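Q: Sequence in, structure out?
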Amino acid sequence: MGKMIFLVANGDLRLSANQKCWPVQAEVEAAVIEAIKREGHDVRRGHEYAPEKKHGFIDSQKRGIEVFRTIPDDAPLIVVEAVWQYSQHLMPGLLHHKGPILTVANWSGQWPGLVGLLNLNASLRKAGKSFDTLWSVDFKDRFFLDGLKTWLRGEPLHHDRSHVKAMAKTALPGESQKLGKELADRLRRDKALLGVFDEGCMGMYNAIIPDELLAPMGVFKERLSQSALYAEMLATSDAEARAVYDWLLQKGMTFKYGPVTETDLTEAQVLEQCKMYIATLRIADAFGCDAVGIQYQQGLKDLTPASDLAEGLLNNVDRPPVKDRQGRLLYPGAPLPHFNEVDEGVALDALVTNRVWNALGLSPETTLHDVRYGEDYDGRFIWTLEISGSVPPAHFARGYAEAVSERQPPMYFRLGGGTIKGISKPGHVVWSRVYIEAGELKADMGLAESVALPREETERRWSITTPQWPMMHTLFPGIGRDQFMAQHCSNHIQVAYAPDKISAFKALTTKAAMFAEMGLTLNFCGQTET
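A: Exactly. Output:
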């Protein structure tokens, strides 16, 4: 490998986020550069700090293309991430780059680089682009330094993936195989529609499943416009929104209000979110959607408060009733599965989870989380999973009575809007991720535990991540920190509860059987035995 290493830093599309996060990014870059120089290599940044923008990130696809025009296409290249990043900014340059590529993140939940790294890595794996990857708390540990030395010698990095085991359909319990086949055959026969409100959110190339991979299993997309959602919100009456809000208050949900709309949550913001909830159900019903996903971030963010309150309510069985304009109750007694940030891997996963859990008589509430952060606590490595705003209240021990709505951070959400915040109850969890690799749909699956931590530790973890968002303290038996990072092919992970370990195993194996009948290639990860 040549002596000169080029470095790039990808960021957000939103100026406020890039400015706020830049100081941490600069610190991380300095630590990585120092480590490279100690190995006798020079580092050249592929793009300069922009004084007029007050940050040094690549902040658009256009800018990314400009930057890569100046980088020799055979040069060793390191992508350093301490923030959430929009992978689309880099993909045109990375896909045509011929030199070795290393992606690096700081082990921190603050902005967070780990989530950005997992998104970029999953996007590269979907595209079939070779790369290596590392992560570190302080860039002085042996894992990082040894890995960096190996990469600088021009050798590929080989991470431990011994926790991953290919799953053959025939190895599953016969009862699971039978039910999984019945559900997959029914889906193929009757079809299902995924309502996608503006595809391709936040640069998540990894979150788009081509139609030709979905069609053979009987799943199709209904591509919807967020402008239509906004128009339907405008056509929704104040009285209807107030009825949803009053229902939430009667259930015991808490809303933390303040006087300044730019920084505080206000009742007016929440009432707009209630209109979005109503509008989503009406549009989904009109198009016959079996699941629905709102992009929000780069569409509705300049028009209306955040979509998160609506998203969490949609995923709950017990939710405010909504009727169409003729008085017909919509999706009665059931969730309308919502896939946050229009992540279509989540869409397919949530659809299958809903069918399997209902068939087994289990409560079907499911949600994605960001793989946000993790560290040891009392001798166990406990992950902090957070979704950017809302989970179904059924995931809290006391449901709506435990749910708290706080204003979304102004850095990301200019017009505010409330979250559904709380701590996910302890219990048995089935987790999964649907992804694309080498043109093939795959799923990694396993069993996990949502665990209880002392309130002080929970508050500490909220303080170093995003305190307005809901959290799940998660233990993945049989999967180490670095094993998880090496294998997991997304910034997102899907979770659903089961009442006990035997039920969780039955749900896991039935879901695996249905996926297998649908044509997915499956891996079981970690300890999955009963």
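The radius of gyration is 23 Å.
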